[in-house]
Structures are given as C-alpha cells and as structure tokens.
Amino acid sequence: MKSIKPLREKKNTAILLIHCPDRQGILATVTEFLNKNNGNIIYLDQYVDRAQKVFYMRAEWELEGFAIPAAKIGEYFDTLIASKLEMNWRLYFSEDIPRMAIFVSKMSHCLFDILSRYTAGEWDVEIPVIVSNHEDMRPVAERFGIEFHYFPVTTENKEEQEAAELELLKQHKIDFIVLARYMQILSKDFVAHYPNKVINIHHSFLPAFAGAKPYHAAHERGVKLIGATSHYVTSDLDAGPIIEQGVTQCSHVDTVKSLIRKGRDLEKIVLSNAVFKHLQRKVLVYKNRTVVFN
Amino acid sequence: MKSIKPLREKKNTAILLIHCPDRQGILATVTEFLNKNNGNIIYLDQYVDRAQKVFYMRAEWELEGFAIPAAKIGEYFDTLIASKLEMNWRLYFSEDIPRMAIFVSKMSHCLFDILSRYTAGEWDVEIPVIVSNHEDMRPVAERFGIEFHYFPVTTENKEEQEAAELELLKQHKIDFIVLARYMQILSKDFVAHYPNKVINIHHSFLPAFAGAKPYHAAHERGVKLIGATSHYVTSDLDAGPIIEQGVTQCSHVDTVKSLIRKGRDLEKIVLSNAVFKHLQRKVLVYKNRTVVFN
Amino acid sequence: MKSIKPLREKKNTAILLIHCPDRQGILATVTEFLNKNNGNIIYLDQYVDRAQKVFYMRAEWELEGFAIPAAKIGEYFDTLIASKLEMNWRLYFSEDIPRMAIFVSKMSHCLFDILSRYTAGEWDVEIPVIVSNHEDMRPVAERFGIEFHYFPVTTENKEEQEAAELELLKQHKIDFIVLARYMQILSKDFVAHYPNKVINIHHSFLPAFAGAKPYHAAHERGVKLIGATSHYVTSDLDAGPIIEQGVTQCSHVDTVKSLIRKGRDLEKIVLSNAVFKHLQRKVLVYKNRTVVFN
Amino acid sequence: MKSIKPLREKKNTAILLIHCPDRQGILATVTEFLNKNNGNIIYLDQYVDRAQKVFYMRAEWELEGFAIPAAKIGEYFDTLIASKLEMNWRLYFSEDIPRMAIFVSKMSHCLFDILSRYTAGEWDVEIPVIVSNHEDMRPVAERFGIEFHYFPVTTENKEEQEAAELELLKQHKIDFIVLARYMQILSKDFVAHYPNKVINIHHSFLPAFAGAKPYHAAHERGVKLIGATSHYVTSDLDAGPIIEQGVTQCSHVDTVKSLIRKGRDLEKIVLSNAVFKHLQRKVLVYKNRTVVFN
C-alpha cells in the first residue's frame, strides 16, 4: 500500500556535493562549469569554514538540456575541475531513489513515524527491509508490507549475525541504514561498511547523558529540558557527527515515565528530520562535524 | 493488532473536575471530603482565576479503600458539597475507557500519528470508527483494522449526511471526536451534540491565518515562524477554546510546499498532545478559554 | 562611557547587496568580478526565489589588495555588471559605522537592552541621539551620555513635530531609526524619508493581534504562546516586512500583567536581533518580504 | 536613579514554603489553618513527588484581616502543624524586600540585564553592592549608583579575600548572591554561608560542557543547539540544583565567536528568569533538585 498520495515533486536533476581546501575562485569555477554546459541551476548553497579553510558546496541542476550526458558528468567534472582543486566530491541523480534499511528493537514510535511518511510518499526512498533483534515489530512490518528479518544477537553470535545482516543488506542493495531506537551496539566492522551511512537517534541532548538510560539520568539530575540527537554512527559510541537536535521543556512534575513519553515525540521528529536531510543530499561530513544545508 | 506493548499504568481511580465561584475554604472542603473517606489522593491540582473569581480543580484518588462506593460518589459529593458551593463538576473513572471517533479527509499525517499511538497502547482510548468525506484513507483504516465510513458531503446532502454520522457515532457510543485535518465544516447542530468534545487541529498560529490556506497566507506575509493550534470546535469557525499551540521556524528559503511539509509535523504533534490532555481529563473550559493542568 | 570592551572584529571590507531578475550565470559573473580583481571573499551567500524568479546575493570581501580603489568600486561594478543585469544593488564599507537614532516612549526594557549592547561595544554603530514623546526616559539617556530630545506629539502639532524630528535626524546624519516601543504612529511622510530604515518591535506574533493592546487581546483569546515581531515600518500599520519573530509559552495561569512581563524579554531580544541583522547588512527587502542571510 | 516606574503590585502578604514527608490530609490541614484564621489565600500551589513520597507547597495570603499577628504566625504554625508533620518550612513577608549582591568579572551582559530590571522596578529587590575580581565593571556600577568593591583573587589571598567579601555582605545584610558571569570559583566555606542562596549562570546546557570554555567545546563537538543553565551553587562545581535552562539554535555557520554572541542573550535571560523565580519564593530545593512553582 505504498504511496497514498506523493508529496514530492518529480524532477530529473543532478546533485553535486563538494568539499575541498578553500582558495579563490572555486565557486566561480564550478558555477561557470555548470553554466557553460547549459546546466539550469535550481539549487546552490555553499559555505566556507574560515577557521579550517574548507570550502563546502551543494549544487543541483536540471539534466534536461545539460550539454554533458549524465553518465559522463562525473568523469568530466573530475578531469576538468575536481582533480585540480583537490576536491572531495560526490555526484547524485534525483532519479536514483536511495534504498534504506530500518533497524529497530521493541519500540514502535520511530518506526511508525518513518513508515507513515514512506506510505504517504513524503520521501524519495525505498524501504525494502526491516531488521530487528526482537520479534515485537514484525506485525508492524507486515502491516506495511515490508520484509522483516529477526536477528537475535548475543555476545557469542554477534559476529555471525552481523555478517548475515550485511549479506541481507547487500542483497537488497541498501544505501544507508536508520537505527529507529535499535538498542544494540553495532561493531566497528559493521559500521565500517557504511561510513556516515548509519543514522542513529539518541534519546538525549548529546553530549549530555550519552550511553544507557538517559531519561533516568536526566530525571536524576533535575534538568528543565530534555533532548534528542540524531547523528551518524561511528566506532565511537554516541560520538558521531550530529545532524539534528531538538529539546522540549520538562519540570519537577515529570516522572521518568513522563519524560520517556515526551521524549518519544522528540525522538521521532528529530530522527525523521535528519533522515530527510540525508535523503536530500544536504548533509556533508568533515572532521566529525556536519554541514547541513537548507 | 491493538496494543503492541501498553505504556500506560493500570490504575483504578476516580477523577473529579470542578469549577465554581471562588470563595474561602473550597480546597479545604474538597480535600477534607476525600481524606475523611479514606481517598488516597494521587493527583491534585487547582487554580484560581483572581480576575474572574473562579476556582478550578482536578483531583484523582484511588477507589480501593475509598469509603464511598463508586456508584454513590457523585450523589454524595453533589449533596454534601457541590450543590452548596454552586459547583460545575464532572466525575470520571479511570476504568471507563473513552471512545473516540476520527474524522479525516485526504491527508494521512495526523491519522497515522494517532493510530500509531493507539496501536502502541500509548493512550487509554478506544477508536472504533473512522469517518471521512473521501475514500483516500480507507486503506489506512483497514490496515489498522478500524471501521471506515465514507460520507461524501455536498451542500445538498450535508444535513442528512451529518444525521447519518451522528447515528453512527451513537451506535458506537462515541464520547468525543478528533478532526485529524478534516476539511469540511461541521454544522452548528452537529457541534451542539458534542460541546467541547470535538477537537480540531488548525494549521496556523491562531488567531493568525484563520480560515483557508493558512500556509499560503503565511508565505505571502513573509512570517519567520509557522504554527499549529488545537482547539475545541464551537459554532464559531477557528474561534473555539485553544488547548495547545506550537510553532516552528521558517525563513525566506521556504516555499509554500516546504511550509506545508514542516507544518505537518507540527500539526500532528500539537493535535496528539491536545488529545492526550483531553484523555487525561486535564482540560477544563470556561468562557471560551481552557485551563490545562499539568 | 562608550565601549567597555569591544567584541567586534575590526575589519576593512566591502559589502555588496544585490537583487535582480534571475538568469543563468549571475553568480559566476559576480564572483568572477571579485576574483579577477583579487578580492578575498570572506562571506558569500545567495538565494534564488524560484517562484518570483529573483536572485539575491550578499558578498563581503577584503579591501586590502583589491585591485579597484574603494571609491571606484561602485562605478566599475555598475558599468561592468549591474546595469547589464538590471541589478538593484547597494555597496557598503565596514569602516562606515552606521548612525542610529532611538525613538522611545515610557518603557525602558528595549532601550536598556540596546544601550547595554552599545556600551559593551557589541555592535558596530553610533547612537548620537534618542527621541521621545515623553520625558520618562531622559534620565536613562543621560546616564548613558546620549543626547535626549523631547517632542510631545498631539494631533495638532504632529506635522511640525515630525518636521523638527527630521531636521534633528538630518543634523545627526542618522542612517536608520529603531522604535524601541515608541507608542506613536509615524506619518506616511515621515516614513517616506526612511524607506526600510525604520525598525519597529510589535508586541505580538504578527499578523495576530496587530494594533493596540495585543497582550490584552492574547489573554482574552486564551492563546498558549505569545510572540513579538520586528519589522520595517511602512505606511501600512504593523504590516511592513518582517525581519524577526519570537514566541514564548504561556498558560491559563498568566494574567495580562504576567504576559506583559514575559513579553518584555521577548520584545527586547527580537528587536535587538533584528537590529543586529540590519547592522550586518544581511537583510534585503523585496515585495514586502525580507531575505535575511545567516 | 532607582525605579523609573515600578511594575510590581504592592501587596502585604505572607508566603509559606513547605516540604515534608507525604501523608494524607496535609493540604487540608494547612488550608484549614489559613481559612479558619481568615487568611485570604491569593496563591496556592502544591506538588507531591510520589516516588520520593515528599509533599511540597507554596501558599501566599493577605496579612490584612488575618487572625494571627505577623510576628506570631511562625510560632503558631510550628506548634500547631509543622512540628507534628515533620515539616521543613520557611515563612516570608512580601514587605521584607530581599537584599541581593551581584558578583561579576569582566562581562557586562548579565550585569546590565539585572540592573536594567532593577532600575525599571521590575523586581522587588534591593541591590546595595556589586563585587568583582576585576575593575572593568566599576563604571557600570557607578552609572547605576551602586557601591562597587574590587577583590582581586589569587590562590594565595583567596581565603582572606573571601573573608573580606563575607564581611562586606554581612554589613549590607545580603540575603542572596547572583553570580553574573563571575569567573572565579567560590570556596566550599564561602558557599556554606549561603546554602541555596548563590545563583550562578553556566554558559552551557548542563550537564553537557561543564567546566571551562563550553562554547569552544560545543563548537568542537558540532552541536546544533547551545544552552545556558542557571543553578544554585554547591560545593560541587556546576552540579548544583538546576533552576532554569534555555537553548537556542546554531549551525555549521556559527564560529566560536558567534556562539559566544548568541549565548550572551541566552545567559542573561535564563539567569534573570531564575533570579525572578527565586525572588518570588517559588523555588524549593530537595535532594539537589528544584521544585519551581508557576
């Protein structure tokens, strides 16, 4: 029952993400390249980190009428520009719909939020598979007609289970993974297969309350705001590049239970915003920080 | 597939909501009444509007061990206290699960958000029926195993269709109605059957941009924040008592389309928060304003 | 006692603000112009309104080493680029400190906030004069060593008083005016002398509660959030281009008095943020809307 | 030049703050006590921590017409009620204006914000003295006509300097101290003289970035929100009971400098809100957490 009514605009564009050492003329060079090849730019944003001397850019232009055939753009751009300017660049096409896998444990709020958007056609994405270390969410997956795979993980079987998961992801040609409150730490090896391609939601305002039971810790500390943080997973627990954060007010009347309740809404919205930014190719990562374009 | 894992605490309590002319001793009188009948109070909140001279109170106590049998509490309270103090009061029991109907049109975001919470057992509520003036949401209703009724409304048939809807609601013993982006104005007569029992979400920061196409109006005006407002429906369009409001930042880069997108998240969270407050019996209405207890 | 400890970086730059009909290559053309004249760009931001087909840009570059002498930049840019691309453009130099006048009535919170920042050297601005229709704020002005002029305004003398005010502003070479809760409507004629150069703070979330006594109206309506809006003054009351808006939570416990109290903090911060954006030359106005760059 | 135009209502009331082990009937007992002595209650709020089984209450009533003379209230209340219910209680009178000392270092934003409110008569407080470990703020103090004392602190002279400060505070009958960005750690001994009576503002969202240079740490971590926290000072650095917290959005475009700039506004508002709550006697502390009444 995919796509009740798509909200996205259909378009046929190329998206270029760049970061490189800053120097004079980069912006002029890139825009010139697009212009003289008749690229109708529909989005351009750039930012220069003056302290680090790094130039960041996102450009999106229509393929229709562009002088260079899609298949050749990367090669041309690399030869003519990127290689000369030591650019770290990626090229995407709006018609290549990213394929996402959801990892979930027992809580349904983030999963439901993502599947609701998916079903409503809110995002340009395919979600062929849901992975879990528990059976609880199987009925939800089935209800939305998505393959559900159960991989119980123990310290003994973790290595082989992750290998099986990776195999499954490979079969499904998964581009990136969303941990929708997946309460199981992924190994360094696993993460290494998806660098800056595993998006997690942590139920605190990082770096506060990293690790387990953040709401209990927040209640114990008597904070007046609780938060949620979505970040790319790295080998360093809860320390990856932050994509999005949100907070909501609380007070002395809140119990741990009510913090958990309030937090769920924060978690699902913050996670979905981060996933949406990632899907739009608007997030660049450099030195454990993100540039998130509008 | 109701209730994956209930989050609510089971309890057996009575809830008393009161408002009346303020005078000395009301609070002492009521708490005294509960105490001397061995009512273990688990929640008490009260507020006095000094300008209007009105006293508001919400008390919740355990029925177990309470000296007065549940069936008699109302009678006793009325005779001994309420009648003497000109109280406007209501008594609820936590074990009476409220029955809610959802009215929806073509947009799924609020509907999905409510059904996700319902399925997760987040709320103490029963949702036996979904009503719509379009067929679009039928598959969603079916997916969640909830009866779906289609009532196309035209200026000609509006009266008979509303009559049929009221009949349906009666059959299902519906206590209150949630308009989850229901794009159809209810008649005064219809609303009169559910006073302060029809909860709407308006996609603007009321009273700004009341009426149709608020996001277009907001974009046209160039606001830097967009909002959503949940309120009880009265015969006066978008002018009923406000339960909850939220806002989110926007800027010159936002198109009407992106405002609509951002607004959806705001709408669903604001509406669900309002419904939750209503379900907890924490909302009192007096002179077109609400008292919303913590 | 100006400038306890300046927080601003000293720099010697030129700032170019542009808006014009969008077409291919504008960005490349402008950046190329700066690059080939050895302009070291330290800030560049641009935005294209695809619906209106308008291109907006702000560029800032170091004058040191720039091939074109400061005095000639405008002329060159106009001849070589602006005139050909139908550009609406303005050129500023960081060393020309803008001169601002404050208009105030009886309330001190916005005035104090602005003078505190001024004294702390937080802003690159000169404030030679304060104008008021009441004497109340004279001691504050004196305390900060700023000229204070009292212009009581009546319907009879309004025209001559405004003429006198304009004369005073002229003497002081005032570039723009900040209405720090100035409770007196400026005439169309007066405003015409400072197009998009009079910044007002309105104590509501416009367009809600435009006009007088917004907090009373907000309380009457029973809103759950109150707001403040800073905008450029036009001949149309409270309807000018919005620069910045903010909101804060309120509830049934708030009286009109407590809303006024909470609102003051909102007003002073929102106004000061708007003034700061204006001072940085980051606000462009087009068709009663603003583009506010980061 | 104190008090341009007082905003506070003059009133003659008594305020009772209580916390004690929860048991049936406390609320009825206290309200009964006030009622039968003709105390016209103008504010009452209470909260029960069900987990800790602690009852908290704040009551305020008019002294005019109250049966017990002000001087006797404490004694009567203690004998008749408090002692029997193991109450931890404090009694205040609205006519006793609290006396506050400000400790500041080199930054003026919090100091100006407090003195602006003081001058505007926004708060019921006296500020007889400002203490600093630097001379920078002397001119500000003089401008507002407040005694300024300079106590340069070194590791060698810290003990004697704090002794001198305590002596000064004693002379001025200081009730509580506000650290308006005072960059100097107070000794355990010093703090012991003012338990839960020293209010600090920390420029981060505690417990994140406790200690020095939080904005540098926040920038390094790449957070998307920065915060400020006002808390009572305890012997444990940045770990005292939190009174108020706030956050504001930031992004990749923010430098450490712009975070510091944005943070200043947050700091001054959060600190002033906390001071105001403290002045209203609405903050209770229990086990390193606060109950902050509305």
TrEMBL record, chains A, B, C, D:
GO biological process, any: one-carbon metabolic process
Broadest EC class assigned to this enzyme: hydrolase
Keyword flag Protein biosynthesis: no
Keywords from the UniProt entry: Hydrolase, One-carbon metabolism, Purine biosynthesis
MF-aspect GO terms: formyltetrahydrofolate deformylase activity
Pathway info: Purine metabolism; IMP biosynthesis via de novo pathway; formate from 10-formyl-5,6,7,8-tetrahydrofolate: step 1/1
Domain of life: Bacteria
InterPro entries from the UniProt entry: ACT-like_dom_sf, ACT_dom, Formyl-FH4-Hydrolase_C, Formyl_transf_N, Formyl_transf_N_sf, PurU, PurU_ACT
Pfam families from the UniProt entry: ACT, Formyl_trans_N
Residue ranges annotated for the ACT domain, each copy included: 15-54
Domain Formyl transferase N-terminal, residue spans: 99-275
EC numbers for this chain: 3.5.1.10
Catalysed conversion reaction: (6R)-10-formyltetrahydrofolate + H2O = (6S)-5,6,7,8-tetrahydrofolate + formate + H(+)
Active site: 238
Family per record: Belongs to the PurU family.
Function text: Catalyzes the hydrolysis of 10-formyltetrahydrofolate (formyl-FH4) to formate and tetrahydrofolate (FH4).
Descriptive protein name: Formyltetrahydrofolate deformylase
Source organism per UniProt: Gaoshiqia sediminis
Gene encoding the protein: purU
